[in-house]
Specification:
This is Pentapeptide repeat-containing protein. Keywords: Signal. It comes from Rhizobium pisi. By secondary structure, the chain is low in regular secondary structure. It folds into two domains: 82 residues, E3 ubiquitin-protein ligase SopA (Pectate Lyase C-like); 92 residues, Pectate Lyase C-like. The chain has three helices and no strands.
């Protein structure tokens, strides 16, 4: 107790109070490198193509409008990061954590994100064309008008996801994909073989947009409203 009242004790307390701030400032100013800590840093509107951020802590980092195309974010933690209109096109993101990110109109085209988590993410109008998403989870994600053209979705999980007007029609997968409790209002599923899909119910199919070539699980049938009109939005 006596030390706290002394000048030395007060100086020590001041150092302790400001140490986290100084450390955080130093980390935010550091160059991109594996396993760095950019938690809650602002990295908006930057050119970070090809950066190696494997295993980095990017929790709640703001990457709005930033170009991360071709970057390595394998096993990185991007939970709650802001990626609005950002690009991760062609990035390597195997096993990365994108849970609860904000990524409206962002590009994940041709990303390699096998086993990645997008649980609870805001991904309206996101572009996943050509993405490798085997084993990825989109549970409770907002995927309104997201584009999965030519994406590989083998073993992907869309449980409780909002797939309203999302386009899955050009996606490919082998084996089951999870759709239990997913909201599928005008979800494009034309030409898909969903015979092994898990969790699908007739009410979801009645809302979705398929065609004569859509294959459904046993017990489900195509509604009279198919095919849907083209979506020009």
């Amino acid at each position: 107790m006596a030390m706290h009242g002394s000048p030395l004790g007060l100086f020590a307390l001041v150092l302790l109070a400001f140490a986290p701030i100084s450390t955080r400032a130093a980390e935010c100013g550091s160059m991109a490198s594996p396993k760095l800590d950019w938690q809650e840093c602002t990295k908006k509107n930057l050119m970070l193509q090809g950066s190696d951020l494997e295993g980095a802590n990017l929790f709640s980092t703001d990457f709005s409008l930033t170009d991360l195309s071709g970057a390595n974010v394998k096993s990185a933690n991007l939970e709650k990061a802001t990626l609005v209109r950002a690009s991760l096109e062609g990035a390597h993101a195997e096993g990365a954590n994108f849970a609860k990110i904000e990524a409206y109109r962002s590009s994940f085209a041709n990303i390699a994100a096998e086993g990645a988590s997008f649980a609870g993410a805001e991904l309206q109008r996101a572009n996943f064309a050509g993405a490798q998403l085997s084993g990825a989870t989109f549970e409770k994600a907002e995927l309104g008008r997201a584009d999965f053209d030519k994406a590989v979705l083998t073993g992907a999980k869309f449980s409780f996801a909002n797939l309203s007007r999302a386009d899955l029609s050009g996606a490919t997968f082998e084996g089951p994909v999870m759709f239990d409790r997913a909201f599928m209002f005008l979800t494009r599923i034309e030409g898909l073989d969903l015979s092994a899909a898990a969790g699908l119910e007739q009410a979801q199919i009645d809302l979705a947009c398929g065609d004569a070539s859509t294959k459904l699980p046993t017990g489900l049938s195509a509604p009279a409203t198919w095919p849907c009109p083209a979506d020009h939005e």
